[in-house]
Every structure is written in C-alpha cells, then in structure tokens.
Amino acid sequence: MTEKQQNGLTYAQAGVDIDAGNAMVDQIKPLVRSTRRPGADAEIGGFGGLFDLKAAGFKDPILVAANDGVGTKVKIAIDTGIHDTIGIDLVAMCVNDIIVQGAEPLLFLDYFATGKLEPEVGVAIVKGIAEGCRLAGCALIGGETAEMPGLYARGDYDLAGFAVGAAERGTLLPKDVAVGDVLIGLPSSGVHSNGFSLVRRIVELSGLQWTDEAPFAQGSSLAQALLEPTRIYVKPLLAALRDGDGINALCHITGGGFPDNIPRVLPESVGVRLDLNAIPVPPVFGWLAGTGGVAEAEMLRTFNCGIGMIVVAAADKADEVMARLRAAGENPIRIGETVSLTTGEAVQTSGRLAL
Predict the structure, then answer these.
(1) What is the pLDDT of residues 40-91, one digit of tens each?
(2) 86-99 and 73-80 helices cross at what angle (nearest 10)?
(3) Which of 17, 161, 272, 329 lies 20 to 30 Å from 185, alpha-carbon distance?
(4) Is 16 exposed, middle or buried (0-12, 13-18, 19+ CB in 10 A)?
(5) Looking at per-residue confidence, does 19 or 30 come out higher?
(6) 60 and 169 Cβ atoms separated by less than 8 Å
C-alpha cells in the first residue's frame, strides 16, 4: 500500500521569503549610495564589496578592523517599533574602536538577522546605518540579511557590524604615553550602547512604560531618550590628529566603563587619576543610579557616565590639543592625568560623580 506523496512545498511556506528580501535590497540601494566616498562606489548586489586604498589616498597603509553589536539596546527598539536610530549605534560601536587606533574608518558591512523579514523594519535599520556611515565618513559596501524562522521569534532581530579602517605605517595609536600626560574627556550623548541589560532592569523596577515621559528628559518618551544614538567621534578626532601632534592615545569608553577600558591604552608602569568632580554627568545617569540603587563604582564600570571618549595628550601639548578639538566642534574637558603605577588599580579616582 502506498500513500500519495505531497509535493509543492516552497521556501516561503517554510518561513523564508526571498521576494521580501529582494524588495528590501531595492529599497536600500539609494541609502547605500549615499555613503559613497573616495575608494568605494557604495554599490551593493555583488558577492563582495570592493575598496581601493590608493584612491582613498593611502601610500603605505596598515589596515585596522573591528566588529561589534548593539547589545540589548536593540530590544528597546524592537519593543517600541523605533528602528531608525539603532543602525547609528551599530556603526558607532565599530568606527569609534577604529579611530582610537589612529585609523580612518573606510568601509562598513552589516549583518541583520531576524525571524521574519519585514522590509519596512529592515529599511529603517539600514537608514540608520547609512546615517552612521555618513557621520563617520565610511562607505557601506555590503551586508547580509538573514531570515531564520525558528531561531528568532517573529519581530525579533539582532545586528552585527564590521568596519575596516587604515592608517599610514608609523602613525598608529597608542604611542609614547608617559606619566604626566593629560586626560581630556569628550562628552557622550547619553548611555550609548552599553549596560542596557541593567538599564532595562531598572526600567522594570521603575514601573514606567516606554511611552511615558522620561523623568530625565522633558518632552521625550522614555524609549526615545534611552535610544539616543551613540556619538560618533571620528571626524573631530581625525581633524585633531591631522592638524598637529600631542595626542598619545585615544580610549573609547564602552563595556567595562573606565576601569576596564583605560588600561588598554596604557603601558604597564602607568596608571591614571580621574577627577570625578570634573565629569559633567548627564541626568540619565543620575536617574539610573537613583532608581536602581546602583553604587558609584558599579556606574563607573558599567556606563560611560557622560564621557564617551578620552584623549590622552602630552602635558606640554594639552592646551593645543584641546583648542584643536574645540575647532573641530568638540567640548573637551580635562578629567585627570596619568600617574606612575607600581601596585594597585590602574585607574584611581578622586572626588565624586554628580549623580
């Protein structure tokens, strides 16, 4: 006895819609083209993206690569339907890690994975990615959209970003960091893209809804305020590096905050003393600390607390470096200095955060 075999099952019936993916690609092509720069025509559709280092002006380049994601900040975007800024965060987390090595970000690729592709959501995300690339001066030369039913719940997605930059041989940072160097802080735009598992837990404890007005940002909903994109520091830092000397290191304050990130750019015998009184702490951090009962030490290790990037400048060049940063549109703040380190923690503090 035989049974009639059932035929005709399609990929779409299994949960993957190729047509939707193709439609999304057509919609994002103009966004991708808007990121063109010397070295890349920012066209997509091939099997790989191309970049011409010679056309970008490099003679003897060292390539610098970085990849990152947005962490659970993406969950706020998913829960609230606000998808058009999370792509800026994705680019920022990668290119800010490129610039701290003294390299210019040149190209970017994204990976967007979801359970069920909704082209309008994908287009909104790529809109933010393109905006981030324009802010960083790098070209979006490719990416991947993966529809994976059964692995992600419908509506859920995750993002990963990949950036490549270059610097002329001999110009990479850090270099020559010494005792007595000045720490210059560059303000953050808020929480950036770290610590959001704790942020979301504090929001739960607060009893607030995403649509409620943010207690720390009048006129903005809680979701809008917390989704404020990560600052991209590339262009002002490139300008400061190109217009003079005196910058010995740059440090991106990401996961791990001050105690985990600053030592990454220091020699073994050098530590830092941070003046917490000098840091202008945005109201969001006071709200997080107060609502969650988060201790100062935990705040410093989890969040940027108002400083998203640190410039380590030679003492005799610090004023000049700060002037160059101001000319590039930054608001630099002296927040400490490097000190001799024999034992103990590399990052020492004085004063208190204004939480």
Answers:
(1) 987 777 788 899 999 999 999 999 999 999 999 999 999 999 999 999 999 9
(2) 160
(3) 161
(4) middle
(5) 30
(6) yes
Cβ-based burial of 115 (10 A; exposed 0-12, middle 13-18, buried ≥19):
middle
Structure token pair of residue 234: 């590339």
Residues recorded for the chain? 355
pLDDT digits (tens, 9 = 90+) for 262-310: 999 999 999 999 999 999 999 999 999 999 999 999 999 999 999 999 9
3-state DSSP percent of the chain in helix, strand and coil, to 5: 35, 25, 40
Question: Is the alpha carbon torsion for 324, 304, 296, 221 positive or negative?
Answer: positive
Tell which residue, 119, 111, 35, has the closest CA to residue 83. Answer: 119
Task: Tell me the three state secondary structure of residue 108.
Answer: strand
Strand pairing partners for 247?
313
| Contacts (Cβ under 8 Å, ≥6 apart) of 39 | 51, 52, 53, 55, 56, 106, 107, 139
In order of 148, 196, 206, 232, the CA distances from 222 in angstroms are 31, 13, 11, 22
Calpha distance 177→224 (Å, rounded): 39
